[in-house]
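In this supplementary section we document a worked example of the pipeline. Step one takes a protein sequence of length 168 as its only input; no multiple sequence alignment statistics are reported here. Step two produces a three-dimensional model, which step three serialises into structure tokens for compact storage. The input and output of this example are shown verbatim.
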Amino acid sequence: MKLKSLAAGALLAAASFSAFAATKDLGTLDSTGYDTSSEFSVKFAKNAVINDTWFFTIDVPSATSFGAQQTFAASTAAISNFGGELVGYGAFGPAVISGDQQNLSWSGALAAGTYEVHIWGTALIKNTQYTATVSALPVPEPETYGMMLGGLALVGAVAARRKAKNAA
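The serialised model returned by step three reads:
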């Protein structure tokens, strides 16, 4: 009986090493202009199941992108079934392998708030790691577009006036 309990405990301990879920916060992005934040995942053991959660906060509506990138020195990707989703906005497209990198990405307009991203996969080699990056560029206010259109109209009027004056 004691041997069975010991074996069950050892099995549970071994299983805990192969699956790892991390929660990381990329922080609040600066609302005064373009801002980006990046961080590395933990290093995963061979055959470890990746189930990470990343958080980030945007304090003003922004054109936002989130990416996860895994670079590998081996001839093939070190994470199989590499995938992710921005919770509430859907899954990222399939991982794109280009040269010695594997990339996941999402981009779109987001309102001010805190967002959650899940990244998953299975590490195929020991010490596998990936980088998560979030970027945001504040969306201009409607008044900004109005001023830009007014400025373009003024420049067009001046150009038309000069053209008419030179034609005369």
